[in-house]
């Protein structure tokens, strides 16, 4: 192992986890998806190791951790531009369980209204709207 500039250790496992997250921009990835990908590509990494590496990447500000609800495990997203995350809301499909980022002026207007008229500031990283995505609605029509 070699030491990186942040004082921690940079391992091949950590690099592969980070590469996987980088290759899936604007997506929320679970530890299970990372484990499956690594195992499919010949890198055997234990789940505890993956979580340890993910926690370190969160601590470093390289990725963001989302805990959406008690049924779904945490998911992670790579933060380009030195950890700056664009403000956005989240939509979760109740059928396929995909999580979508939505940067929408109308939702920002709703956020501003809630702050101005109700004195409540929304934390967009914790805001999830549940429903059925377009793809699942199309499948249901058939």
Description:
The chain contains 6 helices and 8 strands. With 142 residues, the protein is α+β, with helices and mostly antiparallel strands. It has 2 domains: 1-83, Arc Repressor Mutant, subunit A, CATH 1.10.10.10; 86-142, 2-Layer Sandwich (Dna Ligase, domain 1), CATH 3.30.1490.190. The strands form 3 sheets. The chain has a 3-stranded antiparallel beta sheet with strand order 3-5-4. A 3-stranded mixed beta sheet has the order 7-6-8, with no helix packed on it. A hairpin with a 5-residue loop joins strand 1 (2-3) and strand 2 (9-10).
The helix/strand order is: EEHEHHEEHEEHEH
State the CATH superfamily name of the largest domain.
Answer: Winged helix-like DNA-binding domain superfamily/Winged helix DNA-binding domain
What is the end-to-end distance? Answer: 53 Å
Rg: 18 Å
Mean pLDDT across residues = 82
* Helix-and-strand structural type: alpha+beta
User: Largest beta sheet: what is the strand line-up?
Assistant: 3-5-4
User: What proportion of the residues is helical, as a percent range?
Assistant: 40-55%
- What is the fold-level CATH name, i.e. the topology of the largest domain? Arc Repressor Mutant, subunit A
CATH architecture of the largest domain: Orthogonal Bundle
Number of domain units:
2
Helix run count: 6
> What does the overall shape look like?
globular
- Provide the CATH top-level class of the largest domain: Mainly Alpha
Largest sheet: number of strands, sense, barrel closure: 3 strands, antiparallel
Q: Could you tell me the strand content as a percent range?
A: 15-25%
Which residue ranges are poorly predicted, with pLDDT under 50 across at least 5 consecutive positions? Answer: 1-9
Number of strands: 8
């Amino acid at each position: 192992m070699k030491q990186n500039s942040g004082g921690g250790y940079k391992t091949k496992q950590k690099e592969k986890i980070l590469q996987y997250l980088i290759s899936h921009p604007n997506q929320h990835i679970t530890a299970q998806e990372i484990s499956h990908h690594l195992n499919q590509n010949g890198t055997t990494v234990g789940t505890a190791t993956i979580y340890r590496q993910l926690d370190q990447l969160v601590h470093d500000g390289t990725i963001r951790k989302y805990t959406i609800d008690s049924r779904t495990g945490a998911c992670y997203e790579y933060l380009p531009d030195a950890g700056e995350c664009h403000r956005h809301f989240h939509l979760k499909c109740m059928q396929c369980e995909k999580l979508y980022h939505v940067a929408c002026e109308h939702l920002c207007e709703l956020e501003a209204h809630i702050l101005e008229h109700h004195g409540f500031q929304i934390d967009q990283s914790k805001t999830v709207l549940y429903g059925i995505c377009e793809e699942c609605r199309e499948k249901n029509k058939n």
